[in-house]
């Protein structure tokens, strides 16, 4: 796999994500393993220190799937919040896991189950909890 851009992760998000990874069942194992790699290589910092251009949990993100030449707007959520988030994408979905910690302008080649890959680019962060002062949501 090509090199991945550096990522920054909110400390509370990292703790919650680690719990999801630890509890993942067989059907989520592929994504959980990819997400765990990201947590291990990411810079984990306090919520108050998250830059405004970083994708954190509950951020509404405009991104392009360069593989399919398709731009999307999705809110990155925990699996339990999918039902109540109209434009939600789960962090435990292959594409959702690839978004965490990226900055505006970053591109990442992200593995998909079955051996495929997606090339993703962060175009904008339309809403971010930390930017709005919501550090403990």
Automatic annotation (TrEMBL):
Superkingdom of origin: Bacteria
Residue stretches making up the Regulator of nucleoside diphosphate kinase N-terminal domain: 5-44
Transmembrane spans: none
Alphabetical UniProt keywords: Kinase, Transferase
One of the Pfam families matching this protein, by short name: GreA_GreB
MF terms (GO), sorted A to Z: kinase activity
Ranges of residues in domain Transcription elongation factor GreA/GreB C-terminal: 51-125
Protein name: Nucleoside diphosphate kinase regulator
